Amino acid sequence: MSEIRKDYATPTWVVFSAARSQRPGAFRNTKDATPKADCPFCEGHEGMTPPEVLAYRDGGTADGPGWSIRCVPNKFPALERSGEVREHRDGLLVSVDGVGAHEVIVESSDHDGHLANLPDLQVEDVLRAYAERHRALAADRRVRYVQIFKNHGERAGASFSHPHSQVIAIPIVPLRILEEIEGIRAHGAEGDVGCLYCEILRRELEMERRIVVENESFVALEPFAARFPFETWILPKAHERAFDSVSDADRRVLARSLKDVLGRLYRALDDPSFNYYIHTAPVREREAAYHWHLEITPHLTEIAGFERGTGFYINPVVPEDAAAILRGEIRWTSRPE
Amino acid sequence: MSEIRKDYATPTWVVFSAARSQRPGAFRNTKDATPKADCPFCEGHEGMTPPEVLAYRDGGTADGPGWSIRCVPNKFPALERSGEVREHRDGLLVSVDGVGAHEVIVESSDHDGHLANLPDLQVEDVLRAYAERHRALAADRRVRYVQIFKNHGERAGASFSHPHSQVIAIPIVPLRILEEIEGIRAHGAEGDVGCLYCEILRRELEMERRIVVENESFVALEPFAARFPFETWILPKAHERAFDSVSDADRRVLARSLKDVLGRLYRALDDPSFNYYIHTAPVREREAAYHWHLEITPHLTEIAGFERGTGFYINPVVPEDAAAILRGEIRWTSRPE
Predict the structure, then answer these.
(1) Model pLDDT for residues A192-251, shown as the tens digit of each residue
(2) Bridge partners of residue A170, in order along the sequence
(3) Closest by alpha carbon to A202, among A254, A231, A237, A234?
(4) Residue A331 maps to a domain
(5) Which residues of chain A are within 8 Å of residue B168 when distances are taken between CB atoms?
(6) Quick one: B189 and B290 in the same domain?
(7) Subunit contact B224:A275, Cβ cutoff 8 A
(8) Whole domain around residue B51: which residue ranges?
């Protein structure tokens, strides 16, 4: 059974999962370039994964070939689906049973595919699968947050190079979401009528210099205090609380935005390792104001002692420069050869 | 001029430093095995660094050979020593001028040295240099915290393999220190008379299973909610608020403890990349209760999308196992070959 423990003093939570130590690359010295023959996400290898929980397919039967997108439980799950969420308190030692879910969404049957280069419709379907799995897992009364995320490249923690995303449903609202909710609340309390993130969009569009690209429904920008070089956020212009309520029409536009931004990062930084993750409203806190968005963070620098010690970050690239580079106005001269 | 910016919504601060982008390995694809001929920290190469601010030497003159420990300003500083700490507020955009200090402490003239293998007296001198520079920088009225830390190995962000530590003085109390102070305050408010960290020591020594090693003055343990595999803390048994007030006698014992723990990590994990950093009381907040300690975090796993998205961590090694491995009772079987 997994266990989620809280630090003695701080609001830091850690998931301990014995299963995770058995996965390939758990202690990273394997390459992520899994050969097709061994790839559990390739068509014809469906037997290498647990049975699918969702698949988009034109033909074929469950757990056979013929799919375009396939979602399966993670074979090495951080959290498990069975059991109740009990809290354990023993003086300073606080923990919660590691109940939740951990799934993989295979984004394409193309082993060497990259979201930036997949057809628009395929990326749209990836986003649709995210929303479907979010809704399905949010229906579990034990779940309080559903984190959708993607690791691309070995540096970013990907164990497999075959394009895939992951979904982890957890019984606790994550610290970073709580911090954002508190920021939104504090902004509202200052007498402002609007949502903090709506205000960010208004200001940043007005100032222009951190905007990467904008279309009818979404804005991609480098945030003012980007923690990482080329950290990029995609936000819906309309005030939308939750990712899974995005309309079909908007999902089509979002697919284009996401492909566009990932393509810019790919070209400017030569296919960098990156993570992205969707920040959306918690599933139980119906009253909490929120404005969903997607954050992309390339892995170009190391998190070192200063960052681990302080919780601060050092970023050698100001977001204004990163935005100009991603807009194609200047070239990145510090780029390693 | 460097700039320290706050995230729109959350208590995340980021240091933007153009100088940092020029340093070797800023975007990590250089190896950290700097050849001696190019090493700015080797004896005889003193001209490759800014003038020293502290050195322990038997003979010779400032900025010449003959030293055993040498402290110099970082050539690529995250923060600069000149100017006033002005705060800038423009609606959602909050920043502070990047004033502070950034220094390097060269731990030995031996290019291939490792703290775990240096003579006891040398490690004691490294700790003495930490305390001296902490006191010197804390005397600057603009400084609110002094972070002493070490990056060892490329994965841990070290640009140079020659053994060295760093000191960054910042004009803001870091988030993680504030969180610990709040944890200590909350613990006290529950009617407990003792310090939270004193209580952690009492409980953990009683339970034994997360203790790595103990001597007359210090305890090394794997914390209950270790964020990283083999994360190890060293805490003084006596309630001591600040690192720079450690007595000479205790510093001698601490040097032994630190060498011992680093040696255990070296042997069990085959010279892993790691960071350590000293958490000590902020320099201005005289009333805040604190209990200094040193945290060591090896780099064996990647921080991926789930961690970046949530602020949670996934750790595949429970601290009880890590402690048993570091005590030499069991071998680490998941260790990558």
Answers:
(1) 568 999 999 999 999 999 999 999 999 999 999 999 999 999 999 999 999 999 999 999
(2) A145
(3) A237
(4) no
(5) 306
(6) yes
(7) no
(8) 3-173
